[in-house]
Specification:
With 405 residues, the protein is α+β, with helices and mostly antiparallel strands. Helices cover 31% and strands 29% of the residues. The chain has 10 helices and 28 strands. It starts with a helix and ends with a strand. InterPro entries: DUF3179 (IPR021516).
């Protein structure tokens, strides 16, 4: 009697072990790669990476154990036992739908089915739309944020330059990278998110890369860095004013409702919608900042303060710079203000044009002096990023914070 009971328990443990192997790895994997409560705060990208490699083999083992149990021992259960085990398996298959379909990043945020560009005359994108603009080899292209925000990435060419144009709405970080790695142009897939930042995987080596800094976090190329391509974030109107011949990414009609969900994403801060906050000028988790990295040192500028001032003359890490907003209050620029060995300081005149204090020359929003003593001179652009504060400080833990004097 005791041996029979022991055998029955052993067989039952095999069934439950099969259920655990079939379901648990996939559930943990989905939890770690989606923004569920608490999941993104864990330092678990390596665990997530290797767990993805073993989920399928573990499921096969689990399924075989369950099939073996069903064939030889299922009928030995009481009616209640059969109902419990069958119900559990039914719930398990429902959970598989969520982990392998509903909450799989590349299914939630699909690649564009059609990538179509138009010139300004044939364009259907509103001029007030915020875009990421890229110029290469004399060709300019504009990628609207609400399209990028849904797809997370567009794999394209600007002229002869291959580009990986990315945008992560969880951290408000746009980046443009060269997708050529070790001489091979890579196709990237969206894996999920860690620390609220999109993680992408290259097709050849299966390495995982963070979108926010282009670094390989885990895999064969761990420690490598994607080459960054300069870009600007502005309204389409401001971009076309500088690049009238620019091509503009048009909406893919398959995803119009998804784009519409992000319609005002690029215009309204979360802190502006929170009526409980008394001091909206303090940096909150989802406060917008403009971040720069100069000679390895990062610095963040509070967007709300920049919005009020419209321009900031600053200096850090041996670099003098200007941050400024155009009249639309959405298009921002950052420049090195050293011209011909002389440091310039800037202001806005009564008409809202940039003028330097030292020579009173006028400058356009592309950094070109259009009149005055310095006419024809050009400011050097510095790459900067509009990003959520929580993301900027995570990927730049030693960042400085601009404090208004």
């Amino acid at each position: 009697m005791k041996n029979t009971l022991s055998k029955s328990l052993a067989v039952s443990y095999l069934f439950w072990g099969g259920v655990i192997l079939l379901l648990l790895p996939g559930l943990v994997h989905a939890y770690l790669l989606m923004p569920f409560p608490g999941s993104q705060n864990l330092n678990a990208i390596t665990v997530s990476y290797y767990l993805e490699k073993v989920v399928t083999p573990l499921r096969i083992v689990g399924a075989l154990l369950i099939v073996w149990y069903a064939i030889f021992y299922f009928n030995n259960n009481s009616r209640r036992g059969k109902i419990v085990k069958a119900s559990l398996l039914g719930l398990g298959f429902i959970s598989l739908y969520f982990t392998d379909f509903k909450f799989q990043a590349e299914r939630m945020f699909e690649e564009p089915q059609t990538i179509k560009f138009a010139n300004f005359i044939n364009n259907s994108v509103p001029e007030s739309t915020v875009i990421i603009g890229v110029v290469s080899n004399g060709v300019a292209k504009a990628y609207p944020l609400n399209y990028l925000g849904y797809h997370h990435k567009i794999q394209d060419n600007v002229g002869t330059q291959p580009v990986l144009v990315t945008y992560c709405t969880m951290c408000r970080s746009g980046r443009v990278y060269n997708p050529v790695v070790n001489g091979i142009r890579q196709n990237f897939r969206l894996v999920g998110a860690r620390h609220y930042n999109a993680v992408i995987e290259d097709e050849t080596t299966k390495t995982w890369w963070y979108q926010a800094n282009g670094k390989a976090a885990v895999g064969q190329l761990k420690g490598s860095q994607l080459d960054e391509i300069p870009y600007e974030q502005s309204t389409l109107a401001a971009w076309i004013n500088k690049h009238p011949g620019s091509l503009i990414l048009q909406p893919d009609h398959h995803y119009l409702s998804d784009y519409n969900d992000l319609k005002n994403y690029d215009k309204i801060q979360a802190v502006d919608k929170d009526s409980t906050l008394k001091n909206k000028d303090s940096l909150m988790r989802k406060s917008w900042v403009v971040g720069l990295v100069i000679n390895g040192q990062a610095k963040a500028y509070d967007w709300r303060r920049l919005f009020k001032k419209r321009f900031v003359n600053d200096s850090f890490n041996q670099t003098n710079l200007l941050l400024t907003l155009e009249k639309d209050s959405l298009t921002y620029h950052s420049f090195n203000t050293n011209v011909n060995g002389k440091v310039l300081h800037f202001n806005l005149d009564k008409s809202g044009q940039l003028t330097d204090v030292e020579t009173a020359s006028l400058w356009d929003w592309d950094g070109l002096s259009i009149s005055g003593v310095l006419k024809g001179s050009r400011l050097v652009k510095i790459q900067s990023y509009q990003e959520y504060w929580h993301s900027w400080k995570h990927f730049h833990p030693n960042t400085l914070i601009w404090k208004e004097l």
